[in-house]
Amino acid sequence: MTKTLNDIPQHIVALYKAHPVCSSIRRQPKVFGDTSNFTSIDYGDVIVADNRYFVVTGHTVEGRFGVDDQPKQWVPKVVDLESGVSHILKLVFHEVFSVSVGSFTIPCYRSPEKEARILELTEDHPRFMKGKAVEDEAGNLVRILDIISGRRLDKHIYRHDCSHQEYFTAYLPAILKEYLECARAISFLHQAGFRHGDIRRDHILVEYDTGTFRWIDFDYEFYLPERPFALDLLELGNLLMYLVARGNYPPKKIVDDPGLGQKVLDTIVPDDLSLLSRNRVVNLQKLFPYIPDAMNNIFMHFSQGASVWYDTVDELVADVEQVTASL
Amino acid sequence: MADWHKILVAVDDSSLSERVLHYVGEVVGGIDKAAICLLHVYPEPPPYYFTEKHTLQEYREEKEAAARQVFNRAGQVLAGHAIGESRISTICLMATGKTFSKSILQVQKEGDFGTVVLGKRGISKAEEFLFGSVSNAVIRECHDFTVWVVS
Fold it and tell me: Are B5 and B68 in contact (CB under 8 A)?
């Protein structure tokens, strides 16, 4: 049976009525102690979890894949009515799908349990988002996440309007130091038997006040029984190259770049391309000749020409540490 | 060094496995001392398996039934090389919390097998990076025993 404000304590109702949401909602708000049917939960409704009352103020959006502003209905933005603190809730959404990595398809799924366990594991780790997992009245694992006041990493690296060379010399060393901390954090997960599962450039937030890089969103899980950490490792490599180049460089972008053009593209051979994507150049030294050999050698571990590759994040970290120290 | 006549052969239902068994049969069929243990390793169920209301017990029963068929077929292939049932044993296990290669290495160690025989599929670099190569992983880790890789 659908609950309403009549079913919750009076002092909470008073707090709800004082909240700005109340004045903009044109219907009777609903109260959800069971979040199983999350698609029914809308702006202005109240979610009860952890003996707390959260008013829904919006939904987060998926904005990276050309489906801008696609709301994620299982991830409402909320305010704790009693504390006034904003949070993001992640509700249970057991989605099973396939991700394409190059020409391969990998079975992937959302695992609220895994994310809950990582939240617990990394409670005191500064490189991960913080939160608490609790069961709602139907036993769904609701994750109550603290909001990180920060900017997406892929936006962060474009803060300075400067040439790539200036970015490389003036800003990249500090970025790589933070990257290294994040990579070590992934190693910490792997040693505990967990994967991040969805390492992407927009899954690191850079705190506004401290500049600290922090991982978010670890509910993706995938199925690679023989190389369980390979996808995390691959994506850490891709992220490193994205940070160094300040973007990805598919052949078309090279042609269109007035500083590079067809002349540079003509120097690219198949071995310079990514092991898993022929649309990505990883031999970045051919685009930016001031990239040191030692750094470029790291990238070439992810190339079609590679004869050896990294088996663990620690191996990658050791090489990046060495290169970063010499920048 | 473990006794090489104790031979652990990793098998599944592929045609490659059948070629592996023929190879083993050709090589050791006439050697009475050679004892063969057929090993079938299967993966843990993908976790979403459970969200579809299946149980681990169901999964195990399904995989063990499949393994029995693999072992029966393997027995027939080996019989064709004069290797009788008395020289063949079987192990079927789930790679619980570990990779296939680690599971094979664990069985080798526990059984003190002197020879491990594996098939090699012939995969691309990209496949090896993402999905791994059991044979390469076993070769990298092998100490005090012999590995035969049949391609």
Answer: no
A92 to chain B: closest CA residue: B51
Domain count, chain B: 1
Q: What is the reported pLDDT for A63?
A: 61
* Residue A320 token pair: 């990046």
> A109 and B47: CB-CB below 8 Å?
yes
Instruction: Kindly give the interhelix angle for A293-300 and A230-245, rounded to the nearest 10 degrees.
Output: 140
User: What pLDDT, on a 0 to 100 scale, did the predictor assign at position B98?
Assistant: 87
Residue B1 inside a domain? The answer is no
CA–CA min distance B71, chain A (Å): 23
For an interface test with B, which of A226, A231, A303 has the most B Cβ atoms less than 10 Å from its Cβ?
Answer: A226
CB A222 within 8 Å of CB A201: no
A64 band by pLDDT with thresholds 50, 70 and 90: low
Looking up tokens 């843990």 gives B44
| pLDDT reading at A230 higher than 90 | yes
pLDDT of residue B123: 86
* pLDDT of A174: 97
The pLDDT tens digits of the residues spanning A170-222 come to 999 999 999 999 999 999 999 999 999 999 999 999 999 999 999 999 999 98
A78-88: per-residue pLDDT in tens?
999 999 999 99
Pairwise CA distance, residues B75 & A210, whole Å: 66
Partner-chain residue, chosen from B51, B95, B130, that has the shortest CB–CB distance to A230: B130
Does A156 score more than 80 pLDDT? Answer: yes
Kindly determine whether residue B99 and residue A109, on different chains, have CB atoms separated by under 8 Å: no
- Rounded Cα distance between A146 and A126, Å, is 13
Tokens of A59: 């939904």
Mutate to test the interface with A, among B48, B99, B118, B120 (most CBs of A within 10 A): B48
Residues of B in contact with A36 (CB under 8 A): none
The ipTM assigned to this model is 0.81
The domain in which residue B30 lies consists of: 6-150
A30-32, strands of its sheet edge to edge: A3-4, A30-32, A46-49, A52-62, A70-80, A86-90, A141-146, A131-135
Q: d(Cα A157, Cα A213) in Å, to the nearest integer? A: 12
Give dist(CA A139, CA A161) in Å, integer: 50
The domains of chain A, with CATH numbers, are 1-91 (no CATH), 150-325 (1.10.510.10)
Residue A94 pLDDT greater than 80, yes or no: yes
Q: Which CATH number fits the domain that encloses residue B107?
A: 3.40.50.620
Residues of A with CB under 8 A from a CB of B: 94, 96, 101-104, 106-107, 109, 111, 193, 221, 223-228, 230-231, 234, 275-276, 304, 306, 309
Residue-level pLDDT at A68: 56
